Amino acid sequence: MAFFNWKGIFIVGLSLILNSNSFSQGYNSVVISEIMVDPTPVVGLPAIEYTELYNRSGQALSLKNWKLVIGTRTAVFPDSVIQPEEYVLLCNKVNAASFNGFGKIIPLSTFSLPNTAGTISLYRPGNNLVFSVSYESSWWSSDKRAGGYAIEMIDSDNPCGEQNNWKVSEDPLGGTRRK
Questions:
Q1: What tens digit of pLDDT does each residue of 82-120 get?
Q2: Which of these, 119, 112, 109, lies nearest to 38 by C-alpha position?
Q3: What angle (nearest 5°) sits at the alpha carbon of residue 172, between those of residues 90 and 91?
Q4: Residue 11 falls within a domain, yes or no?
Q5: How far from each other are the two terminal CA atoms of the chain, in whole angstroms?
Q6: In whole angstroms, what is the distance from residue 82 CA to residue 93 CA?
Q7: Which end of the chain is less congested by CB atoms within 10 angstroms, N or C?
Q8: How many helices and strands in the chain, by DSSP H and E?
Q9: Cα atoms found within 13 Å of the Cα of residue 140, Cβ hemisphere only
């Protein structure tokens, strides 16, 4: 005679659901996929610093009260959502209109990137680190170091690849334009 423990099945099912939701906002679920630290001289994009996020979690995520920390400066995200496999641009709110037509934009009240080296970290509420990257000017090839080119993550499935997982954008605009 088969015996089913519905209570046990319910607990296991609930545990799987809770764990998948925890994963969706876990470490590297959202990554910084592109960084434009020195937009001048302009190659084709607006002369504005930005970074791009990519949601690799497979679930829509509310970014409300997430934080972007750049060096010692912290910006808190407004009420916004990033869909699965969606890219969003982050920039200073005073410059956000310049990126109309370049995809989804989340304007932040504080946003400034150091040109030569810096660390950008993304935290969800509760100060839980989601992603962090430290870059240096040597990540740009010498012919692109003067400005106008973004660096892009090569493989979002290998977000811990450090410098080997980043390259200078090959897009004619100097950075990837997504719609």
A1: 999 999 999 999 999 999 999 999 999 999 999 999 999
A2: 112
A3: 10
A4: no
A5: 58
A6: 18
A7: N
A8: 1, 12
A9: 24
DSSP 109-178: SS----SSEEEEEEEETTTEEEEEEEEEGGGS-TTTTTSS--EEES-TT-TT-GGGGEEE--STTSS---
In the DSSP assignment, the letter for residue 78 is: -
Token code pair at residue 32: 């910084």
Mean pLDDT of the chain: 87
Residue 140 covered by a domain: yes
Burial of 45 (0-12, 13-18, 19+ CB in 10 A): buried
- How would you write 95-110 as a 3-class SS string? HHHHHCCCCEEEEECC
Query: How far is 145 from 117, CA to CA, in rounded Å?
Result: 12
Q: Which helix (H) or strand (E) holds 168?
A: strand 166-168
What are 9-41's pLDDT values in tens digits?
Answer: 444 333 333 333 433 468 889 999 999 999 999
Q: For residue 127, give both structure tokens.
A: 């100060």
We report the CATH number of the domain holding residue 52 as: 2.60.40.1260
In a domain? residue 10 = no
- What is the tally of structural domains in the chain? 1
Determine the residue type at 132: S
Q: Which residues pair with 87 in a beta bridge?
A: 54
Whether residue 175 lies inside any domain: the answer is no
Helix (H) or strand (E) holding 92: strand 87-92
